[in-house]
Amino acid sequence: MIAYLRGVLLETGSNFCVLLTGGGTGYEVFLPSRTLAGLRQGQEASFYTYTQVREDALELFGFETWDERETFEILISINRVGARTALAILGVFRPDELRRLVLDDDLPGLTRVPGIGRKSAQQIFLELKYKLKLTGAVSTVPGTPSGLYQDAVAGLANLGYAESEASLAVKEALAANPGLEEGELLRAALKRMSRRK
């Protein structure tokens, strides 16, 4: 498995570059459009890579950060999302922007990706939300442990509150006081929900 490459850019295409490594081997690496736009022939570049092996091809996909590579792996694990679609998504959204999209329930935002309509966006969004939660990649407020947010929302849901209502109350409580412990967070969120009634 090739996980990292460094070399000189020989060529760039519509969705790839050819990277010449120090050993004299040139690799064709597919890249998100955002990354590709900043590259120039002759410059040195390095990428974290994901190697995809199929019956008829062996392809390399390159990323500026390890976070981007891991997000790519999550995306291609979603039903009907191939490597090209995953690259297109990362060409529009950085990983942290994608996580924010999920947290904010911004389904229409995903349709900004070329080739993704509302129906496809809905399926991708639902699976992405679930998979990002499973990997612990979702956190509501910068610096807040993702488990604290998720546990608080789950606790409120167990008390009979709708998840959307609970999520909003927890976000507001954390934004007002990011240092809350789990019990304090639950009480603060409950107070906010009782004020709305």
Q: Summary?
A:
With 197 residues, the chain is α+β, with helices and mostly antiparallel strands.
Low-pLDDT sequence parts: 139-146
Q: What's the pLDDT, averaged over the residues?
A: 84
Shape: elongated
The percent range for strand residues is 15-25%
CA(first)-CA(last) distance: 56 Å
Instruction: Round the Cα radius of gyration to an integer and report it.
Output: 20 Å
**Major sheet: size, sense and barrel closure?**
5 strands, mixed, barrel
Secondary-structure element order, N to C: EEEHEEHHHHHHHH
What does this entry look like structurally?
By secondary structure, this protein is of the alpha+beta class. Helices cover 50% and strands 18% of the residues. The chain contains nine helices and five strands.
For the structure shown, list the relevant keywords:
alpha+beta, 18% strand, 50% helix, 197 residues, five-stranded mixed beta barrel, 9 helices
Give the secondary structure arrangement, pairings included.
Layout: E1 4-12, E2 16-21, E3 26-30, H1 33-37, E4 44-53, E5 58-63, H2 66-76, H3 83-92, H4 95-103, H5 107-110, H6 118-134, H7 146-158, H8 163-176, H9 182-196
Parallel strand pairs: 3-5
Antiparallel strand pairs: 1-2, 1-4, 2-3, 4-5
Helix pairs in contact: 2-3, 7-8, 7-9, 8-9
